[in-house]
Amino acid sequence: MRFGRVVMTARDFLLEHITQAWLDGNGEGLCADTPLLELNIISSAEVFDLVHSIQAEYGIAIPLPEIKPDNFQSVDMIADLIERYRKQ
Fold it and tell me: Is the Cβ–Cβ distance between 18 and 30 less than 8 Å?
């Protein structure tokens, strides 16, 4: 039997990270399409903390011009951004 790290999708990673970092572990009601900035779940300043966590988790670099509110509206949008840069 082989034990190792559980592989999570980008959406799973983001939902878990946001729940732990900004919702005190209570992710009830948080979905992949929840409007994160609109509901003040994360602030524009916290987006940079999230980008750092994404870069550390996935070993990708997200260019500064991509770090804009349009790309961080929801977990789905952030996951799409991650996938774009994972494929490069």
Answer: yes
**For the chain, what are the domain ranges?**
12-86
Contact between residue 74 and residue 32 where contact means Cβ atoms under 8 Å apart: yes
Provide the whole-model pTM: 0.89
Nearest to 77 by CA among 50, 52, 59, 57: 50
Fold observed for domain 12-86: 1.10.1200
Q: Give the pLDDT of the chain (88 residues) as one tens digit per residue.
A: 455 556 689 999 999 999 999 999 999 999 999 999 999 999 988 999 999 999 999 999 999 999 999 999 999 999 999 999 998 8
